Amino acid sequence: MDELELLKKDWVKSDDKFEKKSASQIYPMLLKKSSSIVKTLFYISIAELVFILFCNFIPFFVSEDYKNQFNETYNNGTFHYIILGLSYVVIVIFIYLLYKSYKTISVVDSTKQLMKNILKTRKIIKYYVVYNLFMIVVMAPYYTYLSLKTKRTEFDVSALSTIELSKFIGVVTLLTLITVGIVYAFYSLIYGILLKRLNRNYKELKKIEI
Amino acid sequence: MSKPLEQNFVELLEQHQNIVHKVCRLYTNNYDAHNDLFQEITIQLWKAFPKFRGDSKFSTWMYRVGLNTAITLYRKSKRTINTQQFDTVQFKISAEEYDSTEEEQLKLLYKAVHQLNDIEKALVFLYLEDKNYREISETMGITEVNARVKMNRVKTKLRTILNP
């Protein structure tokens, strides 16, 4: 006899063997909070968004010293305001894409479609983080240079020759790159752990279609 | 959500709860984990219930939500470290229906099924629930032919696990 047929026989009979939940046991369950992967992803994306917004804008509003130094450093800096405007646009686009993506996640879709939509949402979060890290790497030398120039410390960056300036930019870029690399590795590890099972199952489903 | 909707949902779930129990049986190993998954599936069913239009049977709809929760949404609980054996807790096996040979064989079979991966377990579950390949393919999001081919491979894999 087919192994599964034997199992099926028992499976059908097992209906009466479960500990039945009564209505009074089910009602409280409806009030409990879900601990699903989608909810976790949602909280992480909100946390990332808030964190980046916090890093970018809050010091400007809460610290008078920071504000003064900021104004002194970037006074009339058109380039800086273009970057600032761009980051606002990116944040709005990101929130819109994320909202749209979360709306497509439906537990009544087929298993493959559901996984696809979750992974798509995760990709949007990833792109946003990658964009921010990329901007840090690109902007760090420029902002460090401007900041040092304004502070007029013993290290006078304005007096640097072209070669020395190139070296300075190179060192700052490298240090930023290393820091960003560590942050990204940590970030990937967290998502790797969180989505390990989902990725494995999605790969398995795709393998069936090959 | 409104009270009549809640009442309707609870009545339907109470009536069809075996489907959820069976999903939990395949995807968990102990009593605590079983209850954890049961609760998560209930929450997902409840969240999706207002959009349930009734054009499919409630039970059919439950299969999809139950499996999707178990395979995709559920994050394993910390409580799964509890090693208490599932079958001795969740099932009330009576003395008169106990057949030691068949029971032993079934135990091995369930153990073998537990060694399958999540997707294979889903196929086995739908097969045991007597779903045809069209329904299996629609639930999983794969083609009917591929569902059939994969099911045959799962049967072979089970045989290999049972007779190494």
Explain this structure to me?
The complex is a heterodimer of chains A (210) and B (164). With 210 residues, chain A is mostly helical. Chain A has one domain. Chain A is 82% helix and 0% strand. Chain A is built from 8 helices and no strands. Chain A has helices at residues 3-13, 23-31, 37-62, 64-74, 78-104, 111-151, 162-194, 196-209. In chain A, helix 3 packs parallel to helix 6 (111-151). The model of chain A has no long low-confidence stretch (mean pLDDT 84). With 164 residues, chain B is mainly alpha-helical. Chain B folds into 2 domains: 1-92, Rna Polymerase Sigma Factor, Chain: A, CATH 1.10.1740.10; 93-164, Arc Repressor Mutant, subunit A, CATH 1.10.10.10. Chain B has helices spanning 3-27, 31-48, 58-73, 86-90, 100-114, 118-128, 133-140, 144-162. Helix content of chain B is 71%, strand content 0%. In chain B, 36% of the residues are buried. Chain B has 8 helices and no strands. Chains A and B meet through helix 1, helix 2, helix 3, helix 6 and helix 8 of A and helix 1, helix 2, helix 3, helix 5 and helix 6 of B.
Overall tally of domains of chain B: 2
* Alpha carbon gap, first and last residue of chain B: 53 Å
Overall average pLDDT of chain B: 84
The percent range for strand residues of chain B is under 5%
Computed CA radius of gyration of chain B, to the nearest angstrom: 17 Å
CATH superfamily of the largest domain in chain B: RNA polymerase sigma factor, region 2, helix turn helix motif
Total number of helices of chain B: 8
Largest sheet of chain B: none
Apparent shape of chain B: globular
Helix and strand topology:
The complex is a heterodimer of chains A (210) and B (164).
Chain A: H1 3-13, H2 23-31, H3 37-62, H4 64-74, H5 78-104, H6 111-151, H7 162-194, H8 196-209
Helix pairs in contact in A: 3-4, 3-6, 4-6, 5-6, 6-7, 6-8
Chain B: H1 3-27, H2 31-48, H3 58-73, H4 86-90, H5 100-114, H6 118-128, H7 133-140, H8 144-162
